[in-house]
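Hey, can you fold this?
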Amino acid sequence: MTHDRRRPQASTDPALQPRLLFLPATDGDYADSDDTAHGADLDHLPDYTLFGTRPVEARRVFWYRWLAGHQISFALWRAMSDVVSRRGDDLPSERELEVLTSCIDGYSAMLLYSATVPRDHYHANIRTRMALQHPSFSGAWAPDYKPIRLLFRGRFDWQDDPSCRELDEAVARNRRTHDFIADHLVPDGRSLLQKSAGTVRQGVSRDKEDLYDNFFLTIRRPVGHAELVTQLDDRVAELAEDLAHHGLYPEVDGRHHPVVTGRPDPALRPLVAEMPATLRRAAHLVAGMRYAGARS
């Protein structure tokens, strides 16, 4: 990545067309599939600038980023749940710990990518759409996060093992990133769920999970591992094209709206400076994992 505002950007305006994401049921195994399926080539992703030099159509760009950032996160969560659901209380292998660590960093990068939306635009458009889907719309309804929630809370006994040091650091980065983004987009700290009286303590029903899936254009059906990898690779390539054309922080209403730039917390800076590379590493590791048999 380069921070030079004068660097020429990609000449072709990427389509940025939201599309359906197909995932297996959260408690379901992968379908049999042709492992020769493959997605976009991630070995030669374009460079990008931090600040875009072209005005953008804000509704189109940031709606796409909100959906794509979440969809990539869902695919990464699924790969993480493949590890923890099969390992249970047993320490994952070195390779599996590498997958978990890289996927968590990829998820943190997607929090930052989605949150490039200017705060006013987020409240006027994206948050309004979520509220129209349901007044209490909440990330707590995400079906694919539930199987890995304990991992982010450090609740697995094996997370105390010295071999989990890098994983622990990734979890800590994710927590700081999540808190920072929440403070940036919703300074008053009140989510839609918290603003809906009498709903905070309610459990998550399947209907709410379905609403969440529907909002993010996610369909549950039999999906092979190769198809999951293809969908992930294609979205990472599209994200890289978006960044190459618009920059991480596009020009909106004559100015840029940086989120992390200049923030003193050094843990977040690599997630901004190396966003496509972080996702490429995670995607390659996910592609290399093959699981057989039923999920526990």
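Oh, and this one too while you're at it.
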Amino acid sequence: MTQTEPDIKMRILLAAKKLFAQHGYSGTSCRQICEAAGANIALISYHFGGKEGVYQAVFEQFFPIMELKSVNFADLDPIEGIRLLVSRIIRLTYQDGELSFMIQQEMLLRSPRRQIVMNVLVEVWGQVRSLLLRGKEDGIFFFGSATNALVMVMSAALSHKYMVNFEDVFADEKIGADNIAAEAVRFILSGLGVKEP
């Protein structure tokens, strides 16, 4: 039985995501990707135009930007908008550790592929900034600098990724994505001066 074109493309993307997360872009070859996917190496050029094309396709396929684009944040109350975005960001990083790790690598290395990552992230964090500014204008949020407020929100939304490094500190308490998201949102909104009902 032959495999359909979408099946082999998805297998290549899944294998690439795993290998890019484990070994980085430079440490992953097209041959390794195809071996892991059980695919002919010529299919990388045919479907993606090369390794860089595979890398970009991984973000297009697995980062839920279209899901976020379907939400009209301008119509949302700033509190609800922050709650929605922060929760989705945390769930994404919690549920797809490979993609999350790929993003971290490129940001830390400031590699030529950083722009692929930034094209995805700027839109998401830009929405958070807009919600912060609108919330401040409406007298809902209280902060001095929008840049500092955004950095604090980013820090709270992404800090759970480092929990694995401090397992001894957390003892045996296991916290799932939903609990982390709820606590992070409460923490962020409290820091912005929102009183709990």
